[in-house]
Amino acid sequence: MQAGRSSSQGASKENFRLHVVTWNVGTAEPPSDVTSLLELDSQDAVDLYAIGLQEVNAAPVRFIVDLVYEDSWSQAFMTSLAPMGYVKVSSIRMQGLLLLIFSRLTHVPFIQDIQTTFTRTGIFGYWGNKGGVSVRLSFYGHMLCFLNCHLAAHMQYATQRVDEFEYILDSQDFDMHNTPHVLDHRLVFWFGDLNFRIADHGMHFLRSAINSNRLNLLWDRDQLTMMKKKEAFLQEFEEGPLTFRPTYKFDRFSENYDTSSKKRKPAWTDRILWRVKPKENGEERTNLEDEDDELSLKVSQDTYTCNMDYGVSDHKPVISTFRLELKKKFGTPLVRVSAEGEWSADHDAIATYSILEPFPSSTWDWIGLYKTGFKSPRDYVTYTWVKDDEVSSSDEIVKVYMSKEEIPLLGGEYMLCYYSSNMQSIVGISPPFQVQESKAAIEQGLVPENINGLDKLTAK
């Protein structure tokens, strides 16, 4: 399904910043401000966000509403990120599990072949209260997969948690010839409420080590660390040092560990790991392109911490930032799209596009009109089908009709985006352009009329 590309030989590597969040939100509504969670005040610009939530409110009535409209958590993140120039490129929801991927607008045409899937493991596999959701995509030609999991709870189920994770890896499939499974991807990020506990130590020792900041005394009894020593496939996943306080279980709206009658032991249940695909045993690199691919992507972790600012849940969110060093395998979008002539609701408009690189186009491809600062591919004002509404075409340029009835009366700054149904992504974005205020808007008194340099509201 992937488009053919020209060689990237000679291209220099560039650094991209990835911000990963995992948070069990305990069915709570989002806080009023997620600035510190997303580190929006940071001087280091983020290129990609991957946000994995667990226990999003999935009561039957609420879940049905969320299927029709964006859930409150997605809305909170989109509302905060869209004004900063980020677009939600993909998401997947399975009951209480939610995974969101955001990208800086400039990268959006180079994020392609997006696919999502999910695996249920909770309550005999029928109800999605536990399991995993994933998004895979191509980022400048490099295959990435993000997997958000919520595994079995309680101290005694460490082995079951590993079995569930292995089942998720085995059962998730993608319709991609070169990356049909999660572990086929060049780079995998695995995160979520993995529910691994701290074994053996009693409550007094745990709290004493945490309060005295001697967290290293707890590391060797962390169940995930212990299981990694036994399971070879887990050893392929890397994790930064656990230098932050265990993120479970807190009294809500406090930094106090559980004071209820249950007095749950603190634990690092919320984790972020990653895996770079290893070279297979006995594999020889005879293809120069394969050899270049082996060296063209590197990942390093800059931070791994929890954020104690938020108290809506009994878990604290965990944050990690990564630096992806990679060669872009291509730097030209698949499609060049633009607005022809002056646009207003006074007359029908023409959008033009050119195919710059071959790709599997579809009769379901469309061009959307978006307000500058749009939140997601679904956030269009209107759209037109590239095949059904075609006006004319030459060897290089295709013109597509857009009805004046669908163009905003009030005008403003907009852009056009070409959406590929096969690739599930926007593959071309026009430069921003101005939609002019229409005569109808002036006649209806919606905007002032300019007469001899003076704005004057026309009577309705």
Structure characterization notes:
This protein is of the alpha+beta class and 460 residues long. The protein is built from ten helices and 23 strands. A six-stranded mixed sheet has the order 3-4-2-1-11-10. Strands 13, 15, 16, 19, 20 and 21 form a six-stranded mixed sheet that branches. Strands 5-6-7-8-9 form a five-stranded mixed sheet. The model is unreliable at 451-460 (pLDDT under 50).
In short:
By secondary structure, the protein is α+β, with helices and mostly antiparallel strands.
Give the distance, in angstroms, between the N- and C-terminal Cα atoms.
54 Å
Radius of gyration: 25 Å
Could you tell me the mean pLDDT? 90
Backbone structural class: alpha+beta
Biggest sheet: strand arrangement: 3-4-2-1-11-10
Q: What is the β-strand count? A: 23
Tell the overall outline: globular
The DSSP helix count reads 10
Tell me the β content.
25-35%
| Contiguous runs where pLDDT drops below 50 for at least 5 residues | 451-460
Task: Provide tags for this entry.
alpha+beta, 6-stranded mixed β-sheet, 460 residues, single chain
Secondary structure: elements and pairs:
Layout: E1 13-24, H1 35-38, E2 48-54, H2 60-68, H3 72-81, E3 86-94, E4 97-104, E5 111-120, E6 131-139, E7 142-150, H4 158-171, E8 187-193, H5 203-211, H6 216-219, H7 223-230, H8 232-235, E9 270-276, H9 288-295, E10 297-306, E11 318-327, E12 335-340, E13 343-344, E14 349-355, E15 366-371, E16 382-385, E17 390-393, E18 398-402, E19 412-420, E20 425-429, E21 433-436, H10 439-443, E22 449-451, E23 454-456
